[in-house]
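TL;DR need structure tokens for one chain.
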Amino acid sequence: MKKSFVKALALLAVAFALVGCGKPAKKNYILATGGTSGTYYPFGGAIANIWNTKVDNMNVTAQATGASAENLRLISKGDAEYGIVQNDVMDYAFNGTDMFSGNALPNLAVIGTLYPEVVQIAASKESGIKTIYDLKGKRVSIGDAGSGVEFNAKQILEGYGLTFDDIKKNNLSFKESAEGIQNGTLDACFITAGVPNSALQELAFTAGLILIPVNGPEADKICSKYGFYTKTTIPGGTYQGTEDDTEALAIKATLAVNAKLDTDTVYAMTKALFENLDTLGQAHAKGKEVTAKAAVTGISVPFHPGAEKYFKEIGVLN
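>> reply
TL;DR here they are.
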């Protein structure tokens, strides 16, 4: 009996020794994304798959969340290492402004921006609205109360010398905004989202719409004051009945990271992601919009040293 017990212990010791001589244990990380019906969750899954297959001993799980603000809180507390967020919301969190007024979050850094989320300003054909100035006195939805869209609307109106007091403000969801324009209870709405947006697609198909440009010196002023905006164009034909290109501003979906994560790990993950963009594009349509050159634009929060090292190596960052 004793011999059997001793033999079993010996075998167990050998097993532990063999495990110890094997591959290092995988590092587990959380990538905070968004709701399962949105873009961030599947897009985050595609990023996690690249990291898990291209970086040794890596196990990244894409976790469904309430999106940007929640993701930044999770990263700051160390409950997630990575997150997909809007770059404007990250700016507010880092500096303790707007929706994070007086509550700046520590431990935040950027890997890079990913793809544009365009501030789309739609109006009914009957409204007579052609410019941002024409919104004065009109019934305008600016997104849910306290949302990133509401702050986008505030900043763009400000660039044209207007405030919420100059419009008949409504706080409605994207779907409710489009329905309001369709049924005549709204004149216009702000929607910050990837192009095309499904609510605007349906509105264009059922009732028609016009897109209001953000351009000229006013756009320059807004971009100068708020470093997270970039200029973009909504191509003609994006929505039924819109034939001409429309100049617009965009914030960008951004890959955020806990600033305390070690440089080598973040460097390896940044390199793996941006050297496998073809794979990302095959896994998700938005992946086709990601480039290393564009990833260093729209940044108003410090880069993580690991990401900065990679972008400097490939010459897209000085």
